[in-house]
Specification:
By secondary structure, the protein is an alpha/beta fold. Helices cover 44% and strands 24% of the residues. The strands form two sheets. The protein has a five-stranded parallel sheet with strand order 5-2-1-6-7, sandwiched between helices. A two-stranded antiparallel sheet has the order 3-4. It starts with a strand and ends with a strand.
Length: 148
C-alpha cells in the first residue's frame, strides 16, 4: 500500500527538522512517497502616484528558479539519506495555508508535516502562523516539528 506524506519546506531550520522527522519516523515502508512542497509569492505589480513596476517574465522565472533551490536541497537531503526513497517536488506560487492543504487533499496524504519557527504568541498574532492555519483547516493529520 502506497502512503503519501506531504512535507512543507522553506528556508528555515524547522523545515529541515520536518524532513528529518519524516525520514526517521514516517516514510519507512517500501512504496512510501515523500511529497515536498514549497510555496512562494510571485513578484507583484507595484504602482504609485509617480511610478509603476511590472515584473517581467524573465524576473518571474528568475524568482521561480531561486525558490526551486529550496525544494532541490530538501530532495537532495532525502536522497543522500535514503537513495531509493521516492520523492516528488511541488513548487507552488500561492498562499501556503491554502496550497499545502489542497495538495494534501489531492494526494490523499497520510499526513502533512511542517516545521514551526516558534515565533511566540505576539509575533504569531501579528504575522500569522502557517502551521497553525494548516492545522486548523486541513482534514488530514498535521504534524508540526519544532526547529532545532
Amino acid at each position: 500500500m502506497v502512503r503519501n506524506f506531504v512535507v512543507a519546506v522553506d528556508k528555515c531550520a524547522a523545515s529541515t527538522a520536518a524532513v528529518e522527522f519524516v525520514l526517521r519516523n514516517l516514510a519507512q515502508a517500501e512504496g512510501d512517497v515523500v511529497h515536498l512542497v514549497h510555496c512562494y509569492k510571485r513578484l507583484q505589480t507595484l504602482a504609485g502616484q509617480h511610478f509603476a513596476y511590472v515584473p517581467s517574465d524573465v524576473e518571474q522565472e528568475s524568482m521561480r528558479k531561486e525558490e526551486y533551490v529550496v525544494l532541490q536541497q530538501a530532495a537532495d537531503t532525502i536522497k543522500q539519506a535514503r537513495p531509493n526513497q521516492e520523492v516528488h517536488t511541488y513548487l507552488v506560487a500561492g498562499d501556503p495555508r491554502d496550497e499545502i492543504v489542497e495538495l494534501a487533499e489531492k494526494l490523499d496524504a497520510e499526513c502533512v508535516v511542517l516545521g514551526s519557527r516558534g515565533l511566540g504568541a505576539v509575533k504569531r498574532a501579528i504575522l500569522g502562523s502557517v502551521s497553525s492555519a494548516i492545522s486548523h483547516s486541513c482534514s488530514r493529520p498535521v504534524i508540526i516539528v519544532h526547529g532545532k
